[in-house]
Amino acid sequence: MMAAAPSSSDGLIARLPKVRGTYEAMADLGKLTWFRVGGPAEVLYAPADVSDLQAFITALPKDVPFTVVGLGSNMLVRDGGVPGVVIRLGRAFAMIESEGTIVRCGASAADAAVATAARDAGIAGLEFLTGIPGTIGGALRMNGGAYGTEIKDVFVAATGINRAGKIVRLDAEQMGFAYRHSDIGDDWIFVGAELNGALGDKDAITARIRAIRAEREDSQPTQARTGGSTFANPPGHKAWQLVDAAGFRGQTLGGAQVSPKHTNFLINTGTATATELETLGEEVRAKVKAQAGIDLHWEIRRIGLPLGHPNALVQA
Question: Which CATH code fits 95-205?
Answer without folding.
Answer: 3.30.465.10
